[in-house]
Amino acid sequence: MGSVCPRRIDNMWEFIRDHPLHPRIVIRLQDAGFYEIIEIGRLQFDWALITAMIERWRPETHIFHLPIGEATIMLEDIEVLFGFPIDGLLVAYSHALRGYKGVHYLHMLQQLTGFQPPEVTALSGVSRLQLMPVRQNLEAMDAEITDASPAEDIGRHTRLLLLLMFGGVLFPNTSGNLVSLRFLHHLERLDDLLSYSWGATVLGYLYRQMCRACMGTQRDVAGFLPLLQKLQYTGEGATTLHGYGRRVTDLAAETLRHARDDKSLGYEAAYVPP
Known about the structure:
- By secondary structure, the protein is mostly helical.
- The protein contains twelve helices and eight strands.
- Strands 2-3-4 form a three-stranded antiparallel β-sheet.
- Helix 2 packs across helix 8 and helix 7 packs antiparallel against helix 8 (151-170).
- It is globular and about 60 Å long.
């Protein structure tokens, strides 16, 4: 396996950079449990280190098999580092959406966000929407958000921003520019978002993406890589390592040193700019 190819998806970060969030949107995101990730901000990835970790990932056990021990990422890590709830309802594909087609998802999108893509071609397949039209509509809406804006408008803006976050940060796929409109089912009632186990969902999605990357079924790696990166570079949220009780931060740093001399990795373990 060569160095993994990153998916650099900047729609949300560029939008927030150019359009600072209105305090009412910030409060809504805080209440929903999704603002801490924005406070942490965009992280610079070391793709050589991430590649080294994925090289050592074993999909049958969901454990990193490293020269100095074994490690895994725990639910507690994502709760402590990013504030996502790990208890609560499962974020699952609703049976109510089983028969939905593209037109149904677009209708739901218009109802919940006031946004209707100008062309049906913005959809990929039945339920995936391109992120760029979402961002462009958010930019148009942003100037209209004021202290006097009705709660309905605040809710619509928040839902669109969360779609941008889901597709660009938490659940990015290898297309690099799509978000699943199936999330609209969970975004319908913003007050209920904290009742779902988003931490388990984000971690499970990252596991699946790392499995696909390490097995060679896809060259690109996606998922919530800031979790892997932050575990490697900070001492926060020290995880319990499987069978060893050592910090992921210590393991990752030592693994990189080993990787530089490990001929079996088949690549130079040095910083690869995204």
